[in-house]
């Protein structure tokens, strides 16, 4: 009963949102990949001040407690702390390790933060007020053959820090990707599956998570975009349950969205945005996070890497970084109509990332501690890749109306493995790699998805070879 009540309070905290617009500025990371600068846009007037501060040529920015933290990534290896109230002066700049290639910073308090590092197997713990080291947390259990987990974006939800681990080899997604979960009270990696030997992370169906974590408030879930192999429609947008600490499976596939996922933003229960790259073109689309279906196209441009980032402000506007060769700048769309209302707003150097002075510095960090729900899991399919048959196990915490279906990456149901009432406990499943009519399926990637009373329980990825 206590676990249920905690989960309910947790969900209500996540659903809470500011009553009125409180953000005032957009901070824009700009670069020509030789030099970097910070631009600042006034949200009320849309006036842009370019070159407000000098930053690294490969950077992202995060706002917390009245200060802007610039993560200077490849070749920078440091965190730069900028004070907007002091004319955008740099208060301090501190290293997080030579060659560490930091990717993100997430805060617990003004004196404690975590830094994910692409070139290291450990998260750095720092005091952002001084730049001093507070230790580190090893993610070595999730490293691949090169000894690195390739940790990228992070988000904190209450007690838990979620860390996207790409697990690439030679920049290729040859290994399954995971979301590592860190207990910020103990500064240790949390084992999300104590039944399985070793320390387990949340396994992802897709590979190569590249976007920030986005909150789908109405369903109390985190969304993250996975690009898979660049140029191959093998990724998509995936959901994570931050209460039960488990993967909820794909929400939309790259095949349905029309390209490699580059960024995701959520407006409400039925309307979200995605940037995809298809060959030499970039496309900004609206899509439905409930069904995964595309709604419309806001922008279709050529050139590749023309739309590197977008963010929604609390005024109902979508700010998009536009890297046109002639007139780079910010584009602004009305999220109520999906129509462009301003731009390009010149930022000097081309913009590559944008963030805002959020009313609540980290809206996901206000929730109370939640206890993980009882184990509910769909095991990985074995063997994988497969040519004749795969077997897997579905473990249920509660009995009820349950379905297990096979889908192709285009979102078509291929086969139903079970549909009906199942009891709590473990259930053995098998798929003979044939469709509903007994015809062997073609070679390719398939998703086995389990649901109970309409709620997603988990997804297993199967590669069929012929």
Structure description:
- The protein is mainly beta and 466 residues long.
- The chain folds into two domains: 2-366, 7 Propeller (Methylamine Dehydrogenase, Chain H); 377-464, Immunoglobulin-like (Sandwich).
- The protein is 4% helix and 50% strand.
- The protein contains two helices and 36 strands.
- The chain has helices spanning 2-15, 254-257; strands at residues 25-31, 36-42, 48-55, 59-64, 67-72, 78-83, 89-95, 102-109, 112-117, 122-127, 132-138, 151-157, 160-165, 178-183, 188-189, 202-203, 214-216, 221-226, 236-241, 246-253, 260-268, 271-278, 281-287, 294-302, 310-312, 317-322, 329-334, 339-345, 351-356, 377-378, 390-396, 400-408, 413-422, 425-431, 444-452, 455-464.
- The strands form nine sheets. Strands 12, 13, 14, 15 and 16 form a five-stranded antiparallel sheet that branches. Strands 3-2-1-29 form a four-stranded antiparallel sheet, with no helix packed on it. The chain has a four-stranded antiparallel sheet with strand order 4-5-6-7, with no helix packed on it.
- Strand 35 (444-452) and strand 36 form a beta hairpin.
- The longest helix is centred in the first third of the chain and has 14 residues, at 2-15.
How would you describe this structure in keywords?
single chain, 466 residues, mainly beta, Methylamine Dehydrogenase, Chain H, Immunoglobulin-like, 2 domains, five-stranded antiparallel β-sheet, four-stranded antiparallel β-sheet, 36 strands, 4% helix, globular
List the total number of helices: 2
Helix content: under 10%
DSSP strand count: 36
Under the CATH scheme, the architecture of the largest domain is: 7 Propeller
Number of structurally distinct domains? 2
Task: Report the portion of residues in β strands.
Answer: over 45%
Q: What oligomeric state best describes the polypeptide chains here? A: single chain
**Can you give the mean pLDDT?**
89
> Major beta sheet, specifics?
5 strands, antiparallel
- In whole angstroms, how far apart are the ends? 49 Å
């Amino acid at each position: 009963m206590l676990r249920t009540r905690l989960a309910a309070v947790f969900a209500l905290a996540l659903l809470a949102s500011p009553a009125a617009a409180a953000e005032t500025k957009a901070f824009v990371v700009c670069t020509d990949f030789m030099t970097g600068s910070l631009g600042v846009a006034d949200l009320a007037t849309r006036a842009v001040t370019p070159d407000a501060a000098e930053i690294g040529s490969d950077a992202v920015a995060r706002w917390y407690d009245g200060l802007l933290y610039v993560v200077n990534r490849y070749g920078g290896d440091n965190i730069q702390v900028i004070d907007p109230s002091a004319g955008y002066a740099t208060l301090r700049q501190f290293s997080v390790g030579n060659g560490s290639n930091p990717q993100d910073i997430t805060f617990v308090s003004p004196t404690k933060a975590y830094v994910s590092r692409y070139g290291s197997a450990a998260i750095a713990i720092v005091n952002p007020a001084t730049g001093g080291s507070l230790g580190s947390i090893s993610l070595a259990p999730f490293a691949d053959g090169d000894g690195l987990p390739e940790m990228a974006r992070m988000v904190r939800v209450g007690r838990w820090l979620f860390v996207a681990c790409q697990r690439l080899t030679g920049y290729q997604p040859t290994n399954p990707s995971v979301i590592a979960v860190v207990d910020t009270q103990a500064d240790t990696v949390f084992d999300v599956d104590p039944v399985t030997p070793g320390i387990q992370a949340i396994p992802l169906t897709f590979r190569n998570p590249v976007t920030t974590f986005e909150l789908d408030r109405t369903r109390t879930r985190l969304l993250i975009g996975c690009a898979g192999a660049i140029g191959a429609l093998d990724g998509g947008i995936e959901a994570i349950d931050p209460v039960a600490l488990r993967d909820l499976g794909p929400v939309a596939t790259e095949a349905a969205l029309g390209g490699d996922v580059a960024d995701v933003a959520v407006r409400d229960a039925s309307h979200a945005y995605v940037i995809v790259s298809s060959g030499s073109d970039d496309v900004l689309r609206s899509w439905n996070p409930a069904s995964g279906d595309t709604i419309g196209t806001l922008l279709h441009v050529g050139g590749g890497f023309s739309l590197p980032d977008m963010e929604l402000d609390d005024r109902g506007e979508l700010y998009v970084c536009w890297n046109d060769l002639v007139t780079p700048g910010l584009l602004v769309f009305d999220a109520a109509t999906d129509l462009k209302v301003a731009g390009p707003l010149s930022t000097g150097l081309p913009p590559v990332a944008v963030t805002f002075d959020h009313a609540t510095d980290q809206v996901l960090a206000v929730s109370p501690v939640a206890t993980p729900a009882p184990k509910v899991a769909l095991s990985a399919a074995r063997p994988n890749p497969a040519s004749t048959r795969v077997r897997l196990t579905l473990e249920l915490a509660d009995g009820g109306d349950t379905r297990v279906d096979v889908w192709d990456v285009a979102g078509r149901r291929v086969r139903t493995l079970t549909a009906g009432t199942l009891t709590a406990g473990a259930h053995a499943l098998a798929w003979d790699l044939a469709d509903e009519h007994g015809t062997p399926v073609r070679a390719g990637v398939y998703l086995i998805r389990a649901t109970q009373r309409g709620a997603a329980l988990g997804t297993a990825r199967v590669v069929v070879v012929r």
